[in-house]
Amino acid sequence: MKPIRFILTIVLLGVMYSANAQKTILQGCNPTYKGQEINVYSCTDYISGTKTLVGSGIADSIGNFRIELNIKGTCRVTLDLGRLRGVLYADTAMTYDIALPDYTPKTKADLLNPYFEPDEFLVGIKNPDRYNINMYIDIFDYTYEEYLERNYYMLASERNYQKKFGKPVQTAVDSIIGEIEQMFDTIPNEFFSTYRQYKYAWLKFISYMRDWRYMSREYFNDQPVAYENPAYMDLFNQIFTNFLKFYMNTREGERIYSDIAYSKSPVKAKQTLSNSLAITNDTLQEMVLLKGIHDALYDCYFTTSSLLIALDSIKSSTTIQQHKQIAQNIEQKKQITSAGTMAPDFCLADTAGVFRSVDEYRGKYVYLNFVSSYSYTCTQDLEQLKLLNEKTKGVMDVISISIDDDFDQMKNFFKRNGYKWTLLDLKSDKSVLDRYNVKAFPSYFLIDTNGTICMSPAPSPSEDFETRFRQIFQNNKH
Predict the structure, then answer these.
(1) Are 145 and 217 in the same domain?
(2) How much is the average pLDDT of 78-101?
(3) Is residue 389 part of a domain?
(4) CA pair distance 125, 90, nearest whole angstrom
(5) Considering the domain boundaries, does residue 340 fall inside one?
(6) Of the residues 77, 104, 127, the one at which a domain ends
(7) In whole angstroms, what is the distance from residue 114 CA to residue 457 CA?
(8) Total count of domains within the chain
């Protein structure tokens, strides 16, 4: 039995080593991050713009951190670092020793500003491999964008360009692409090659090749879909922006409206898309439909219900996992802004450290609000919420989600003022803000007894929410 046990042990060790080898690790040390949580996100769906948390870690007492990333292949990830946002192109089964700038927390003004965007920087890598695409993408982007910035307005007008420089804009663009490419064409990295290819394609598109059919045939119809590559997806989104509205006014696409508005059939819509020789590939047709439905949901040419039915049909029938996920993300993105849809779930810690979810409150109404102790408006509303909570006990639960970095401070604030309803800590899952599309604080939502949003946004307590709620409660009492 010993030889068999020995062989089995070796096999198990091999499996364990293989599993560990597949992990992608970000690690480093900076004392200013002591006790700070570092969240890492990836935009795996560039159509809806949905961010996914792919890793998280807390720096120890001297600032050491180690974060395991759940990624497949090469992808662009971002690190939330207070007033900064780090950018890194990470690959599977790699360990990155990274250098971070000193931590700068968001100010109170930043937290309350719905339009605040952190300053982005490329994360430094202390142990780069020979073909570190982070460095090469950084150099490429600088070279490419410098050229684009110097020549954008001239490139956008072929006549002016030829008049000033005495040569066709195509000649100039192809020449500069050739010069830039000579700097990088020996780098053996497929992700970086695709990145450059679609950056060049965008340059051609804005300068002289302004034909969507040509661009689709050349760069999308018979090419593999690079879902994780931002250059590929940026060009795709530009070429096919508001495509359904455009296509239904062409001869080959005149049936697309009835395919969606009346038939609500992705199958028929794909058949109509195939009338164009530029969209004959089934995968591309589905991608174009997903992008078209996403954009049309925020326009007035199709009814929301017909678009959502078509979207749900794609989600249930597609054989491509990425398309299923994109459809779901588009659906969720639209749901968070619409009354009559299910409230996005969350799992957030309360003041006792117990994790709570929306589903726990089925059977009662929920007045959900996002608040900050830094906001004067929020603190004024909390006093009115105190009275409202007393009046509506038994039929409605008030739930406040604190956006403050210091949850203990908010807990003490609630305790001092006798606020006895549920308080949750956003830090448990900051993506909740995206799922509820929260841009300002305070923000309010009313969720009914079945977990459906019935007011989005809901009035604040000072905007006579109580009267509105009483009407809803009476109308649904029986």
Answers:
(1) yes
(2) 95
(3) yes
(4) 11
(5) no
(6) 127
(7) 15
(8) 4
State which H helix or E strand residue 270 sits in: helix 266-273
**Ranges 16-20, 109-113, 264-268, 346-350: which has the least confidence:** 16-20
Give the CA count within 13 Å in the CB-facing half-sphere of 264.
Answer: 11
Q: What do you get for the CA distance between the two ends of the chain, in Å?
A: 72
Same domain, 456 and 362: yes
Q: Per DSSP, which regions of 138-229 are E strands? A: none
Buried b (16+ CB within 10 A) or exposed e, 237-255: eebbeebbbebbeeeebeb
Any domain includes 117: yes
Q: Please count the residues of the chain.
A: 478
Q: Give residue 135's pLDDT.
A: 92
- Taking CA atoms, 444 is separated from 351, 403, 467, in Å, by 20, 14, 15
Q: Is the pLDDT of residue 10 over 60?
A: no
Q: CB burial class (10 A; 0-12, 13-18, 19+) of residue 155? A: buried
Question: Is the domain of 246 the same as that of 315?
Answer: yes
Residue 157: band (very low, low, confident or very high) from pLDDT cuts 50, 70, 90: low
Peptide bond into 442 cis (omega under 30): yes
Residue that the structure tokens 């992608």 belong to: 24
pLDDT at 3 over 70: no
pLDDT of residue 221: 96
pLDDT of 115 strictly over 80: no
The answer, yes or no, to whether residue 167 has pLDDT greater than 90, is no
Task: State whether 318 and 257 are in the same domain.
Answer: yes
Domain at 377, CATH number: 3.40.30.10
Look at residues 150, 239, 402 and name the one whose alpha carbon lies nearest to residue 231. Answer: 239
Domain holding 367, by residue range, is 348-475
Do residues 136 and 121 share a domain? no
